[in-house]
Write a structure and sequence with these properties.
Length: 277
């Protein structure tokens, strides 16, 4: 039941890099990054449009039942696993949809990037030909209000750059910090500062420390670092996110169990999981 002023987060895609439609990986989920935040009848706020965005789009279309639909999509960055669901996001192809894209880029650049993936020979429909009304906007470094919520961006350490977001509501806060590589003191401090006291920290836990030793510079982190960040920042709950495509459910569960032994309130991001804060 939604509390007054509470946000509900739903995970639609939790996998990193590429979808993994294999039975042994579907317990946590095979779709790439896509999260949805609902707040008090506001339009849906979507974080990243990985392959999980396809199902979410179908649900949103069904919910609005032919009425006008307003949606915002906030990008962390533009690697495939964070944008590949967009061409299959049904509300794009409906003239009753008004869609605002947000990122840390200038609006003209964001538009160029979003249009760039929907162009020949990669996709048969060009972005300018979609029926939805699309707007492009920048989240300024000081953040932006979004209804009663406040969204504050912060830089993550990732090849080509990525942005984390802290979403603050009247009754709780959610911090989304995927794709991020630990180990740079400035970025690590920024992450902790923005995650301070959050109800949820959604963290890039693609590897464990042993795997990470061979993946330095790839832009991802470990569950061990997630636990450290959660403890340092005093968050209430840690969500291990961006599961490595080679990891099956058993391996992800083992990482979650090991993390929970150090920080009890840890869960593994799972497609379809929903929580109200
Ligand atoms: Zn990613
Ligand atoms: Zn990435």
């Amino acid at each position: 039941m939604e509390r007054n002023g509470a946000m509900t987060l739903t995970l639609w895609g939790v996998r990193g890099s590429i979808p993994t439609p294999q039975a042994e990986k579907l317990g946590f989920g095979g779709n790439t990054a896509c999260l949805e935040v609902r707040y008090d009848g506001h339009p849906a706020l979507i974080l990243d449009a990985g392959s999980g965005a396809r199902r979410l789009g179908a649900l949103l279309k069904k919910e609005c039942a032919g009425e006008e639909l307003e949606v915002s999509i906030l990008f962390t960055h533009f690697h495939w696993d964070h944008i590949q669901g967009l061409p299959f996001f049904a509300p794009l192809y409906d003239r009753r949809t008004s869609l605002t894209f947000y990122s840390s880029c200038e609006p003209a650049r964001l538009r160029e990037i979003v249009e760039g993936q929907m162009t020949a020979p990669y996709f048969p429909v060009n972005m300018p030909a979609v029926q939805a009304t699309c707007r492009y906007a920048k989240v300024e470094p000081e953040g932006m209000p979004w209804g009663d919520l406040h969204i504050r961006p912060f830089p993550l350490r990732h090849p080509d750059g990525a942005t984390g977001y802290r979403i603050e509501g009247p009754s709780g806060s959610i911090v989304y910090a995927s794709d991020h590589e630990h180990g740079d003191s400035r970025h690590d401090a920024i992450l902790r500062e923005h995650a301070a006291g959050a109800d949820l920290l959604i963290y890039d836990a693609m590897y464990d420390a042993a795997e990470y030793a061979f993946r330095r510079g790839w832009g991802h982190s470990t569950w061990e670092e997630g636990v450290r960040a959660a403890i340092d920042a005093g968050v209430k709950r840690l969500v291990l996110f961006h599961h490595e495509p080679d990891h099956d459910d058993r391996m992800v569960k083992e990482m979650v169990d090991r993390a929970s032994a150090r920080f009890e309130n840890t869960i593994g991001a799972k497609e379809g999981w929903s929580v109200t804060v």
